[in-house]
Design a protein that fits this description.
The complex is a heterodimer. By secondary structure, chain A is mainly alpha-helical. Chain A has one domain. Chain A is built from nine helices and no strands. In chain A, helix 2 crosses helix 6, helix 5 runs antiparallel to helix 6 and helix 7 runs antiparallel to helix 9. The longest helix of chain A has 39 residues. Chain A is globular, with a radius of gyration of 20 Å. By secondary structure, chain B is an all-alpha fold. Helices cover 79% and strands 0% of the residues of chain B. The model of chain B has no long low-confidence stretch (mean pLDDT 86). Chains A and B meet through helix 1, helix 2, helix 6, helix 7 and helix 8 of A and helix 1, helix 2, helix 6, helix 7 and helix 8 of B.
């Protein structure tokens, strides 16, 4: 799927740019995007080293297991095939908690760690498990308590009430999350029947 | 809220220190893991930024907006936020740039502005996340992940428009 999407985006872009005379801009963008990927990756390198380092200290002290007591029961219900006290569950809990606080940079290392831990429960290492799909879908509908970046942009553009978006965002996320989880469960069942 | 990060660091390290964990050595050990993860996902970041950048530069992103116009009229999606809906699943920083552009034109407190903000904070860069997360562990068959994530994304857009129109319309 990703192979197809990626290929067609690029093929379409080149063909389209060629027909409407934007090849020069396209050429320029290729090298700009390379430069920004290096910038982003360098930023990520520092962030990942910081958070993986901090997480390791907390992990060794058993903090990860303790922190997620509030959302862990809910996750336990959704991820029946993942042991409650596992490192996989701990990383997922931390990822979701970080996302809720709007700490996107902190959430990513936990998320990547969660995927690595979930892979240990996977029998076919090339194929996603139900748990991985569900985790990514939950990740895709973040219930953000403090959307700090969006509020900052609003404030900088002269908004009278930058926080006006908090309540609608939470309601919206909750609805998206519910639909996403239900879809996951339906798709799982349907696939199981086909086999 | 940015100032919460030092306290999270302090809290975690203090907890470890009290429990007798050699925190410095643990940090170094974890940081090495973080370095390896970055090296592994670097190529995925290059691939995604390249594709999205090319789509934008070629004018393809604008064309898709034009093609989707009947759908957006039907779902009452304000035309201004269409680039945001397309960009958000692909690139988080790209979407923030688009958001700033929208808010500048329609005003941050206008209905369209609030809808745009609600959509951006209740959706995620699903294509990017799926590529990077699955890429980091070598998964090739992602099964129903993208479909379910897209359903959640579409729900968020529809609900955001409905809720904001009721609250601020």
């Amino acid at each position: 799927m990703i192979n197809k999407i990626w290929f067609f985006i690029i093929a379409f872009s080149v063909a389209f740019a060629a027909t409407n005379g934007k090849l020069e801009a396209l050429n320029e963008e290729i090298f700009t995007s390379l430069k920004s990927s290096v910038d982003i990756s360098l930023g990520l390198l520092g962030n990942l080293m910081l958070w993986c380092g901090i997480l390791k200290a907390a992990e060794k002290a058993g903090l990860v297991e303790k922190l997620g007591y509030i959302i862990r029961p809910v996750l336990g219900l959704l991820f029946r095939d993942i042991p409650e006290k596992s490192a996989a569950m701990g990383a997922m809990v931390m990822n979701i908690t970080s996302n809720m606080l709007g700490l996107g940079n902190a959430a990513t290392p936990f998320g990547l760690k969660a995927m690595a831990e979930l892979q240990k429960y996977n029998k076919d290492k090339n194929t996603a498990t139900n748990a991985m799909a569900l985790f990514l879908v939950i990740n895709g509908a973040p219930i953000c308590l403090i959307p700090s970046t969006v509020m900052s942009i609003r404030a900088s553009l002269g908004s009278n009430n930058p926080g006006a978006v908090i309540i609608p965002s939470m309601i919206t996320s909750l609805a998206a999350l519910t639909v996403g989880v239900i879809c996951c469960k339906i798709f799982e069942k349907r696939e199981g029947k086909m086999e | 809220m940015k100032t919460v990060i030092p306290f999270i660091i302090l809290f975690m390290l203090t907890y470890g220190y009290i429990k007798g964990v050699p925190v410095y050595e643990a940090f170094i050990e974890g940081a090495k893991e973080g370095m390896n993860i970055t090296l592994r996902i670097f190529p995925y970041i290059v691939a995604m930024l390249l594709a999205v950048g090319m789509l934008r530069a070629s004018g393809g992103l604008a064309l898709i907006g034009l093609i989707l116009k009947p759908v957006t009229v039907l779902l009452k999606v304000p035309e201004e936020i269409l680039p945001l809906i397309i960009m958000k699943p692909l690139s988080g920083s790209g979407a923030l740039g688009v958001l700033a552009d929208i808010l500048k034109r329609v005003g941050p407190d206008s209905l369209t502005g609030i809808i745009a903000c609600t959509i951006i904070s209740s959706t995620e860069t699903i294509f990017y996340t799926i590529t990077v997360y699955f890429g980091s562990i070598g998964i090739k068959n992602i099964r129903h992940t993208l479909m379910a994530a897209l359903m959640a994304d579409i729900t968020a857009i529809i609900v955001a428009i409905a809720i904001c129109s009721r609250m601020f319309g």
